Amino acid sequence: xxxxxxxxxxxxxxxxxxxxxxxxxxxxxxxxxxxxxxxxxxxxxxxxxxxxxxxxxxxxxxxxxxxxxxxxxxxxxxxxxxxxxxxxxxxxxxxxxxxxx
Length: 101
Description:
By secondary structure, this protein is an all-alpha fold.
């Protein structure tokens, strides 16, 4: 949860900055650090680009987010949208089945 808040707050703090054209210019840790921590480095996804501003190092944020942290949030947002879109019709179908029995 702290990671999600950190990415959103960093992206909001850097909202006026220009997003760089190359994704490899964003803040990222070395691959060896991910291996020693037992984590997996996620590759860049070109959706939800406004969140990429959280990885810009020259902004107002003391510690910018890594590209992997931003990608985790992007994956979560994508899954959350699918979950909401499928939950609402399922709830209506379940409601109809219980009312008219």
